[in-house]
Write a structure and sequence with these properties.
Structural class: alpha+beta
CATH architecture of the largest domain: 3-Layer(aba) Sandwich
CATH superfamily of the largest domain: Succinyl-CoA synthetase domains
Largest sheet: 6 strands, antiparallel
Number of strands: 13
Number of domains: 3
Order of helices and strands: HEEEEHEHHEEEHHEEHEHEHEHH
Radius of gyration: 25 Å
CATH class of the largest domain: Alpha Beta
Oligomer: single chain
CATH topology of the largest domain: Rossmann fold
Strand content: 15-25%
């Protein structure tokens, strides 16, 4: 089993069976040269095959819409639960509950609908209680076993499991800190260490904004006008000239980048500080195309600073986006 942080490994060729040590070595060598959904395979899990009677899905997650938790169960496991919800929603059992209600849930009554023996239902009930304890102990917003294997001898095995740890709780779980860097590019790791949110995409227009919502709306609008964003980068509130300079250096190091769009709405972020960072960056990167919109705190001062260096500033997000698309096309 290829150990990569993506779902659907089996369908992508990341899980293989072997009958001999020689065959296992050959498969391992092949997997280490394979990418699973663009993720490099750096480690493998080797375990004994299970004689399968049925594959089950068991999970607990946060139901944000209803402000509570939800247990999700299906006797048709082994596929992504989102896919099953679309194709066969009647095969999924859902149980909503408040955190203080879990111990009083009559789980066995819900599970009777799956027509398993009382012994197997008791095993599933015990497993759900264990999952709930783990969820609380490790501040998870998702824990799932898919598939949970029911073997032909009537035992349950967690053949594959996944957890999502709440990012805001990582400081309480030092054992997970190193894992937060897995699957990230070197640039993503560098930006993360600076306390900013950065995700590389496949386009050619670099995006820098302050605030996740603003970044997302900017990316959507760039796509709306026919551009292709190269990244998500939220420099956060109160960004300094050093912070914007660092962000610009990281984005410009991407060989796909043809231009950079800066869209800042200043509250605690000062537009003149952003301008100083841009000016410093352009001293060494004069050839890169840029489109800039700065609105809010010390906006006029920022605009004046840029004007002194012959750097135009646009009034609206739409104008700035249309300009960068024009520059890179």
């Amino acid at each position: 089993k290829a150990q990569v942080l993506v779902g659907g490994r089996g369908k992508s060729g990341g899980i293989k069976g072997a009958d001999t040590p020689k065959e296992a070595l050959s498969i391992a060598n092949t997997l280490f040269k394979t990418k699973i959904k663009d993720q490099e395979v750096k480690s493998l899990l080797i375990e004994k095959k299970i004689d399968i009677q049925n594959e089950i899905y068991i999970g607990i997650t946060v139901d944000r819409l209803n402000h509570n938790f939800i247990i999700i169960f299906s006797a048709s496991g082994g596929v992504e639960i989102e896919e099953l919800a679309k194709t066969d929603p009647e095969k999924i059992i859902r149980m909503n509950f408040k955190s203080y209600e879990f111990d009083d849930l009559d789980l066995k009554r819900y599970l009777k609908a799956i027509n398993y023996s009382q012994e197997i239902i008791s095993q599933i009930d015990k497993l759900l209680h264990q999952l709930w304890r783990i969820m609380n102990d490790y501040d998870l917003d998702l824990i799932e076993i898919n598939p949970c294997i029911l073997s032909k001898d009537g035992k349950l095995y967690a053949a594959d499991a996944r957890v999502n740890v709440d990012d805001n709780s990582i400081f309480r779980h030092e054992e997970f800190i190193a894992r937060t860097k897995e699957g990230l590019t070197q640039s993503e790791i560098q930006v993360k260490e600076k306390g900013m949110s950065y995700v590389e995409l496949d386009g050619d227009i670099g995006i820098i904004c302050n605030g996740a919502g603003l970044v997302m709306s900017t990316i959507d609008t760039v796509r709306h006008y026919g551009g292709t964003p190269a990244n998500f980068l939220d420099i956060g509130g109160g960004a300094t000239r050093e912070r914007i300079l660092f962000a610009l250096k990281v984005i410009s190091s991407n060989p796909r980048i043809k231009g950079i769009l800066i869209n800042i709405v200043g509250g605690i972020t000062r537009c003149d500080e952003i301008a100083h960072g841009i000016i410093e960056f352009l001293k060494s990167k004069k050839e890169i195309s840029m489109s800039i919109r700065l609105v809010g705190t010390r906006e006029e001062e920022g605009k004046e600073l840029l004007a002194q260096h012959g750097i135009p500033m646009l009034e609206t997000m739409e104008e700035a986006i249309k300009k960068i698309i024009e520059l890179v096309s």
